[in-house]
């Protein structure tokens, strides 16, 4: 450090050094205000995503932030000398703490149990620093501008900055950059303001070499962070955050998030979109009814996965169905589907139907352990896509063989099989695996806005024909459209693939490779 | 006094601080030694003091209920031969392949897998067919195994540089030099997998007796694995780590204390042909305890648990007197047998068969066994996996640790959520085995538990509150060590020869500790006995 020790200013005095450019300094107020607000929004969004209950999370974050600002303003009176220097230091502190806040919070959430303490400490620190900054700036500018202009200018720009931040955040920053990059970017902005201030305030600073070096170091740190930001982000985080989060829950098994926006609501499991209420009927009609149409008269039905109750809703349309067993891993999911008003309305209170029996267990373990009870006439297999080994096992020859043990000889099975367009090899891998497990299989597909082109497999231990007639009352399916689903265009035709087994789980690798190309 | 002190503490400000410290010292979960149950040397001496009052006549006594003893009994029963007893010291059979069970999962006490056998191993194939594991043969005549018994993906991961990576060989950060040595090593293993002697025998097979005894194969045994690598100039640190891991895992030894023959055996014997992957592994939640249960099915009523064989002597030509201690009844018992299958570890042969000392004194001392600690950690819930890095696998290895990591017992039960049992392994690999054994036995329950906890905490910092209990198993003579010169020694060869109607069967006799070897010795010894008693049918080998 080559800074000169500063002489203490006489009591009650403040330096009113040579003139500095007030308009430019006012501009820094704007940036500071925008940055502060963005950090606050990042913390609020992140905590409501990770902890659920956005109203509570946002109000606590805002509460902590505002009171910390108050604390900062109060503390500012203890800074009596070297105002300009402190101002730049504060910029750097906010830049570091705020800039890395999202990355740090994701990391804390993933690796420790200290998410809340760290969250509030971060929000508190940023709030305190920002609270310190404005009074300091006002004091720096005091001798330069008339007091009434000073107050008016600073406060106006403070509010405009906040407005800018609050508008930019949902419209541009979140959807385009995501949380981690947004906070890093604003950290850089903060640090840049600090750097710039060393020039604006040079008349009050004396030699500023050490200070500038610090600025550059902070900028380098944050820039480095920006290049590594992808390592911290959850895969589909950006997509989820576009809409208002109405529910987020970490269950023992997965992370359930519900969002609302654009006139519909969506359900995500572990960041993967499960359905949008706008077009889910297309998916669930296609999943369920062809199986019924191919071999009418089934009375005992098994649904694997599908805890949202939407496949159940379609199954229950068939009056001949006397018993439905739904096996879903997560009791929180089935409870939510039975009780949450939006979900309950969408699945038409399927869980209240006396024909439905719910089992909360890993479907594969359940199939393996089930050694009594009559066989099923029809099974609907609706698991999330095979993006992990724990899900991939539900698409193996072993799974389909275990399933077969619980079916009648000519039972029909419908399997959601990911997209034959985006993940063509994965799709055909699932079908080849069904065949290897001793099923006759017919591929079919469907187009829908939220998923694009989606694929299914219709399968049975016994030969069967393309189904012809379905229920008359459906929203999407008609007899001709149903038959049309079984015709495959050239770009989705069969490709040779390996069979997915428990001991190789080729599907997980295929799937990861194929979806990576589209994201 | 105690109460007073407590009252004092409660009223003082120091109380809370002290409570914290105490909590840190005691463990928040239960830990206990599970077995093997007895102080063996002590019992042997004690049992010898009292003579049994009578000797029950029986054709065959099988001493020891490990895989070898069970395999012998299984072979006898398979011939319709019923006049035998099997004495097992512990409360249950299985030995180092035994399985345990608690409210959360079954788990192994020791051995947890067996490589899927090729058609070169008929006895094991027969056992697997009986167990419903072998489903048939493909067009090439190779066995097909039930998918659910093969280790399911993801199989292995290694923790290094602060995160988990797929596989056991650490590819991350490998230099081109590392890569080159890695490929050179496996090219050499392929060469050995392809190698045949003049009689058309492979260099390495499981069981090993089918392999070649050509001089160039035997020559490998006269050097350590480390020396063999040195000669080839293979110094890649990560290759050596990987190979040493294999030695620790399979033999409880290091590159220096494993012969090159045994080191290469691990890799080359498990390949069907060059370029091919190693054989897939078969595993069960209870480890090889699954096969123990299958073996015993054929003769369950012949098993005498908690019966310690203390001595075997020849009375007259063709009559053996077997002394044993019945731990349940707390009295000595005896049999007058025509044949004995001795399926105990070799170090017990000296204690129990006095005449063997005179016959082959040098041989008995050449067997050395490394101690192992196996700890089954029951978890209420799995620790949260970090978002980056390879997910929880069947076998989870920590690079910077003296342990071998842990195997997830619920993996093969298809359970991916909720409570589980992790089986943690640590061999004591030092050169001085007596000191190593003392080192292990000097550790109390708390020391062991803390050691395991610290090891797991390196890779799962938040694991402590998730642990429900730890069951600690200490094997003093866990695995025979294939030190240089041993696997092809005369002493080892002679140890397999019958002595006064006593037929030997134990994995020790192969110089390497493997289920396949133990089973094969059991079947061989039983067939020797059957032949001697005039009951010889077609061989199962
Ligand atoms: C920690 C560990 C992990 C292993 N992992 C594997 C693996 O994954 N795969 C593999 O193939 N092999 C593994 N092994 C090797 C395993 O030892 C062999 O597979 C096989 O179980 C050996 O069987 P055995 O019958 O030869 O000997 P043992 O298992 O030693 O059996 C001897 C039996 O004799 C009993 N006994 C001892 N003294 C007396 C007495 N005086 N009277 C009566 N009974 C007595 C013992 O209680 C025991 O049951 C492992 C070994 C250990 C220790």
Provide structural commentary.
- The complex is a heterodimer of chains A (519) and B (541).
- Chain A has 519 residues and is of the alpha/beta class.
- Chain A has 3 domains: 22-236, Growth Hormone, Chain: A, CATH 1.20.1250; 242-274, no CATH class; 276-516, Rossmann fold, CATH 3.40.50.150.
- Chain A has 19 helices and 11 strands.
- Chain A has helices at residues 22-51, 54-75, 83-99, 101-111, 115-141, 147-200, 202-205, 209-228, 237-241, 280-294, 310-315, 331-339, 341-346, 363-369, 389-392, 397-405, 424-436, 479-484, 506-518; strands spanning 244-250, 255-261, 264-269, 272-276, 300-305, 323-327, 356-359, 376-382, 407-416, 440-448, 452-460.
- Chain A has a 7-stranded mixed β-sheet with strand order 7-6-5-8-9-11-10, with helices on both faces. A 4-stranded antiparallel β-sheet of chain A has the order 1-2-3-4.
- In chain A, helix 4 (101-111) runs antiparallel to helix 5 (115-141).
- With 541 residues, chain B is of the alpha/beta class.
- Chain B has 3 domains: 5-36 and 368-480, Alpha-Beta Complex (Polyamine Oxidase, Chain A, domain 2); 41-98 and 287-367 and 483-532, FAD/NAD(P)-binding domain (3-Layer(bba) Sandwich), CATH 3.50.50.60; 177-281, Orthogonal Bundle (Guanine Nucleotide Dissociation Inhibitor, domain 1).
- Chain B contains 18 helices and 21 strands.
- Chain B has helices spanning 2-11, 14-25, 40-49, 67-78, 122-130, 176-194, 215-220, 225-231, 237-251, 260-268, 289-296, 349-352, 354-359, 361-365, 433-442, 445-459, 490-495, 515-532, and strands at 30-35, 56-63, 84-87, 99-101, 106-108, 113-115, 134-137, 143-145, 156-160, 163-166, 281-283, 303-304, 307-316, 319-326, 331-342, 369-379, 395-398, 405-408, 420-427, 467-480, 502-504.
- In chain B, the strands form 5 sheets. Chain B has an 8-stranded mixed β-sheet. In chain B, strands 2, 3, 12, 13, 14, 15 and 21 form a 7-stranded mixed β-sheet that branches. A two-stranded antiparallel ribbon of chain B has the order 4-5.
- In chain B, helix 4 packs across helix 18 (515-532) and helix 8 packs across helix 10.
- The longest helix of chain B is centred in the middle third of the chain and has 19 residues, at 176-194.
- Chain B is globular.
- Chain A binds chain B through residues 106, 110-113, 231, 234, 252-253, 329, 362, 364-365, 368, 388-390, 392-393, 396-398, 401, 501-505, 508, and chain B through 147-148, 150-155, 280, 381, 384, 386-388, 391, 413-418, 461-462.
């Amino acid at each position: 450090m080559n800074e000169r020790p500063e002489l203490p200013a006489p009591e009650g005095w403040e330096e009113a050094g040579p003139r500095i450019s007030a308009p430019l300094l006012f501009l820094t107020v704007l940036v500071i205000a925008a940055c502060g607000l963005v950090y606050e929004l990042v913390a609020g969004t992140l905590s409501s995503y990770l902890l659920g209950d956005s109203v509570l999370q946002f109000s606590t974050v805002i509460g902590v932030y505002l009171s910390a600002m108050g604390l900062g303003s109060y503390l500012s009176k203890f800074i009596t000398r070297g105002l300009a220097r402190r101002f730049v230091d504060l910029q750097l502190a906010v830049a570091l703490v705020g800039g890395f806040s999202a990355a740090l919070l994701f990391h804390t959430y993933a690796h420790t149990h200290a998410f809340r303490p760290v969250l509030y400490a971060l929000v508190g620190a940023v709030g305190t620093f920002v609270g310190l900054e404005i009074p300091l700036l006002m004091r720096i500018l005091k001798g330069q501008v008339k007091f009434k202009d000073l107050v008016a200018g600073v406060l106006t720009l403070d509010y405009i900055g906040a407005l800018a931040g609050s508008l930019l955040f949902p419209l541009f920053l979140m959807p385009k950059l995501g949380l981690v990059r947004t906070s890093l970017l604003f950290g850089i902005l903060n640090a840049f303001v600090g750097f710039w201030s060393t020039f604006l305030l040079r008349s009050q600073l004396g030699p500023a070499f050490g200070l500038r070096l610090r600025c550059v170091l902070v900028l380098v740190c944050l820039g480095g962070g920006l290049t590594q930001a992808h390592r911290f982000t959850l895969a589909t985080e950006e997509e989820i955050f576009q809409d208002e989060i109405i529910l987020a829950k970490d269950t023992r098994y997965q992370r359930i998030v519900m969002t609302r926006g654009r006139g519909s609501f969506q359900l995500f499991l572990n960041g993967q979109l499960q359905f949008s209420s706008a077009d889910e009927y297309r998916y669930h009609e296609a999943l369920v009814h062809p199986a019924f149409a191919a071999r009418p008269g089934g009375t005992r039905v098994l649904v694997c996965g599908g805890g949202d109750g939407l496949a159940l809703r379609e199954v229950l349309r068939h009056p001949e169905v006397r018993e439905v067993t739904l096996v879903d891993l997560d009791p929180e999911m089935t409870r939510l589907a039975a009780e949450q008003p939006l979900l309950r309305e969408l699945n038409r209170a399927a869980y209240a139907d006396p024909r439905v029996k719910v089992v909360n267990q890993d479907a594969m373990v359940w199939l393996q352990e089930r050694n009594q009870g009559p066989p099923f006439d029809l099974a609907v297999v609706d698991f999330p896509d095979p993006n992990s080994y724990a899900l991939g096992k539900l698409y193996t020859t072993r799974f389909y063989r275990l399933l077969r043990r619980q079916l009648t000889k000519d039972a029909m099975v419908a399997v959601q099989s990911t997209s034959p367009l985006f993940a063509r090899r994965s799709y055909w891998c699932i079908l080849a695996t069904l065949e290897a497990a001793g099923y006759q299989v017919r591929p079919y597909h469907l187009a829908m806005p939220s998923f694009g082109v989606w694929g299914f497999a219709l399968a049975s231990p016994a030969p069967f024909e393309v189904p012809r007639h379905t229920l008359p009352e459906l929203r999407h399916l008609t007899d001709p459209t149903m038959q049309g689903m079984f015709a495959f265009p050239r770009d989705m035709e069969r490709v040779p693939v390996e069979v997915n087994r428990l001991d190789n789980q080729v599907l997980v690798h295929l799937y990861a490779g194929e979806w990576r190309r589209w994201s | 006094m105690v109460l007073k002190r407590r009252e004092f503490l409660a009223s003082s400000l120091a109380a809370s601080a002290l409570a914290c410290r105490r909590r840190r010292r005691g463990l928040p979960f239960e830990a206990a030694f599970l077995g093997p149950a007895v102080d063996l040397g002590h019992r042997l001496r004690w049992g010898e003091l009292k003579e049994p009052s009578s000797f029950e006549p029986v054709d065959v006594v099988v001493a020891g209920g490990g895989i070898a003893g069970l395999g012998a009994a299984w072979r006898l029963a398979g011939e319709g031969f019923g006049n035998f007893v099997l004495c097992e010291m512990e409360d249950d059979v299985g030995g180092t392949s035994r399985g345990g069970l608690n409210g959360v999962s079954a788990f192994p006490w020791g051995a947890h897998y067996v490589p899927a056998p090729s058609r070169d191993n008929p006895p094991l194939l027969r056992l697997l067919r009986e167990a419903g594991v072998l489903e048939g043969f493909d067009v090439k005549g190779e066995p097909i195994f039930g998918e659910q018994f093969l280790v399911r993906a993801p199989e292995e991961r290694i923790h290094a540089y602060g995160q988990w990576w797929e596989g056991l060989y650490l590819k991350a950060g490998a230099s081109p030099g590392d890569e080159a040595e890695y490929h050179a090593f496996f090219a050499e293993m392929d060469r050995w997998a392809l190698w045949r002697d003049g009689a058309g025998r492979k260099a390495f097979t499981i069981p090993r007796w089918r392999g070649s005894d050509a001089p160039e194969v035997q020559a490998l045994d006269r050097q350590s694995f480390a020396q063999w690598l040195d000669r080839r100039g293979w110094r890649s640190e990560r290759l050596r780590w990987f190979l040493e891991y294999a030695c620790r895992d399979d033999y409880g030894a290091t590159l220096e204390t494993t012969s090159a023959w045994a080191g290469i055996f691990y890799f080359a014997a498990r390949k069907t042909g060059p370029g091919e992957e190693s054989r897939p592994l078969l595993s069960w939640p209870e480890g090889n305890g699954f096969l123990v249960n299958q073996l015993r099915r054929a003769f369950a009523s012949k098993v005498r648990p908690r019966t310690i064989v203390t001595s075997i002597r020849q009375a007259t030509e063709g009559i053996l007197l077997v002394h044993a201690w019945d731990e349940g009844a707390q009295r000595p018992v005896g049999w007058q047998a025509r044949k004995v299958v001795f399926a105990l570890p070799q170090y017990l042969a000296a204690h129990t068969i006095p005449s063997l000392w005179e016959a082959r004194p040098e041989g008995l001392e050449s067997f050395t066994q490394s101690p192992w600690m196996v700890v089954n950690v029951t978890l209420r819930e799995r620790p949260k996996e970090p978002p980056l890095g390879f997910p929880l696998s069947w076998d989870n290895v920590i690079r910077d640790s003296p342990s071998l990591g842990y195997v997830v017992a619920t993996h093969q039960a298809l359970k991916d959520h909720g409570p589980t049992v992790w089986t943690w392994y640590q061999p004591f690999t030092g050169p001085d085995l007596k000191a190593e054994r003392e080192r292990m036995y000097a550790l109390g329950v708390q020391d062991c538990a803390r050691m395991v906890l610290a090891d797991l905490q390196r890779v799962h910092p938040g694991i402590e509150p998730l642990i429900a209990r730890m069951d600690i198993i200490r094997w003093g003579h866990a695995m025979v060590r294939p030190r240089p010169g041993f696997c092809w020694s005369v002493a080892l060869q002679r140890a397999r020869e019958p002595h006064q109607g006593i037929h030997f069967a134990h994995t020790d006799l192969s110089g390497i500790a493997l289920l396949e070897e133990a089973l094969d010795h059991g079947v061989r010894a039983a067939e020797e006995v059957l032949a001697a008693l005039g009951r010889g049918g077609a061989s199962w080998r």
